[in-house]
Structure formats: structure tokens, C-alpha cells
């Protein structure tokens, strides 16, 4: 029997300490989980982006806890060695009690940690989750569940004040016990400052190469998404002869820091 060491939070923290980058891809079913495992993808995210790429909605807001539980179960069955992060959908963490009950439901079906969108206001929730044995990742910057507050999918953290707020929030959340942070669509220099300000791993999407890990939506990185691709998206299937090879190419590019290139980031 071959013993495969599963990726844990300790693995990801050690990566940050060593300066080794790690790769995450969104995943919604068993066969993709197995294929990502075979390609060496360290982290799988059952993202509420499934509302857009699987269900055809124009935002992530209609996604329910039932949807997230079903897809987390499907991914967990196929996953043997990656760290499995599951999204908490819109309004499922509106109160600390809601957060505890809904996060527990995701952990029971195989998640290793849950992801919530917000800032320092989530500190108490993060603290209670960790007390209950549930690690959390806080998604900051462009948080798609707040698309109507932002008035569209817009780059965040562009002013000096907004950048300082992101750094302050990151420190507060680390102190509250957050295990990971995720930064979406923030200027690369701001993301680099956030990552340098905390000792927990910071994962980026449209946040430049200085984050500790990178994440992409699987349909985007396979060139399947329709319409104009976001600036940070790269099609890793181009030039490869299989989906597994595309995942391997992505892992290699994240590790050798050829992805994201400067043109994938925001200034
Ligand atoms: O839901 C999702 O897929 C995400 C990624 C965009 C990071 O949160």
C-alpha cells in the first residue's frame, strides 16, 4: 500500500514559512477531485461560484446550504489527499449561531475548513468557529456575495485608506484565529503587503504573485467559461492533451511563479 500524506493546514503554513507557493482550484464533483489529486493540486475549493458555472445564475446569491452540502459530499468522496475548503453561501453566517450550525453541516460531510466573505466584523464568528473545532478562511477584497453593495464586480483596495483597512482587517482576523485569508481582485502591491503583515497563508485570485497560494475557478482555467475572461484568468488547457495535464501545468506555474504574471494583476 502506498501511503499518501494528506495536505493539512500545517502543510500550508509550512509552505508559507519556506516561501513555497501552493495551488488551489475550485471543484464541485468526484471525478474532478480525483483528477486534481492525481495532478498534485494541494487545495480544493467547493466554491459558491457553482451557482454561476453549474447552475447558470448571474451571481452566487441564490446558492443554498443544501447545494453546498451536496457538492461538498461529492468532492469529499473523490478527494484523498488535498485540503478541502467549502464555501458558506450567502446569509448562512448572518449570526454566529447560523455560522456554527451551517459550518458544522459542511464539516460533517467532509470539509476541512469553511470560507466566509467579509472583514474584521467576522472576528467573533471566526473565534467561535475555531473554539468549536472549525478552521476558517476569510475571503476579502472583492467578495462576490456583496456584488450589489459594490455596484458590480470591481477591484477593491485601490485607495490608500482601503488598502490600510484590508491590512488592519487581516491582522484582526489572524488574531481572532482565522486559519487562512483569501484576497480577490486587489492591487498586487496591496496583496503583497497583506501577505507580509500576517503569518497565516494568504491565497490570491487577481491579487498578484506575492500571495502564498493561488486559486482559479476550474471552468475559467480550462477555457470553458463564456464571454470575456477576467484579467487574471489563464487558460491552462492550451497546449496540453488532457485536463489532468492542464491541472499539473497550473500547479507547476504557481510553484515556479510564472503564474500569475504581472499582466494578470491589478495596479
Ligand atoms: O466561489 C468561488 O469559487 C470563490 C473563488 C472565486 C475564490 O470564492
Question: Mind explaining what this structure looks like?
Answer:
This protein is an alpha/beta fold and 267 residues long. 40% of the residues lie in helices and 14% in strands. The protein has 11 helices and 8 strands. The chain has helices at 9-18, 30-39, 50-53, 65-78, 96-108, 123-131, 147-150, 160-176, 188-197, 218-221, 243-255; strands at 22-26, 43-46, 83-87, 113-117, 136-141, 180-184, 202-205, 213-216. It has an 8-stranded parallel β-barrel, surrounded by 7 helices. Helix 6 links the parallel strand 4 and strand 5. Helix 6 runs parallel beside helix 8. It is globular. 48% of the residues are buried. The site of 3-methyl-2-oxobutanoic acid has 12 residues, from strand 6.
Feature tags:
267 residues, 40% helix, alpha/beta, 11 helices, globular, eight-stranded parallel beta barrel, binds 3-methyl-2-oxobutanoic acid
Topology:
Blueprint (H helix, E strand, L loop, with lengths): L8 H10 L3 E5 L3 H10 L3 E4 L3 H4 L11 H14 L4 E5 L8 H13 L4 E5 L5 H9 L4 E6 L5 H4 L9 H17 L3 E5 L3 H10 L4 E4 L7 E4 L1 H4 L21 H13 L12
Parallel strand pairs: 1-2, 1-8, 2-3, 3-4, 4-5, 5-6, 6-7, 7-8
Helix pairs in contact: 2-4, 2-11, 5-6, 6-8, 8-9
The protein binds 3-methyl-2-oxobutanoic acid (KIV).
